[in-house]
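Sat 14:20. Reprocessing the chain from the morning session after the first attempt stalled halfway. Input below, unchanged.
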Amino acid sequence: MVMETRVVITVLVFLELISVAYVLTLAICPKCGSTKVPYPLSTDDSCGNPKYRVYCNNGILEFLSAAGSYYRILSINQKSYKFIVSPPIIINNTCFSSDLGLGGLGLDENSPFNISTDNTVLLFNCSQNILLSPLNCSKNSLCREFEDKVETARGCKDTLCCSYLKDASMMSHRIRVRIGGCTAYTSVVDLKPGDSIDAWNYGIELQWVPPN
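Finished this time. Tokens:
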């Protein structure tokens, strides 16, 4: 009787270990191209946590905004629950961001993702109304340095531009551009005082709330 009980317990433990191994295998999505996709990020219903959906398109890992625009994921920091996406391009010889027609970057407010507070956002071709805001629209604003030294920003030169640090008091699910407001933007991650423009890390850092 004792021997039979031990055998049953051993079999149950073995089956439990197999079950755990199977779940762990399903939990981690395969690489997208050369990019690892850490849990809970999910590229498919069969792996990761589907609430944390990202997309593998032709070997390129991308994030999909609420309005339906894809942003390439440049890097992922699983320990800090963050990843950086590429900012939209500023269309050549214009001062329009490529996502202007969609109102800029907007995140689903019911999703586990939000825009982190480590982004310095530069806005271009803004209306005069923006001067009523607390943003830095002075001649010393970082946006002036960007439009003077970056080739793709030449179409924005001499427009009204502003910069701001995306802090906790601001909406954490949107960077907005529109006709009649500001029509182009870019973002720099983890910008330190005195950083040379050559050292700027262009991107939009998003973060996720860990699953329970």
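Residues 2-27 form the longest helix (26 residues).
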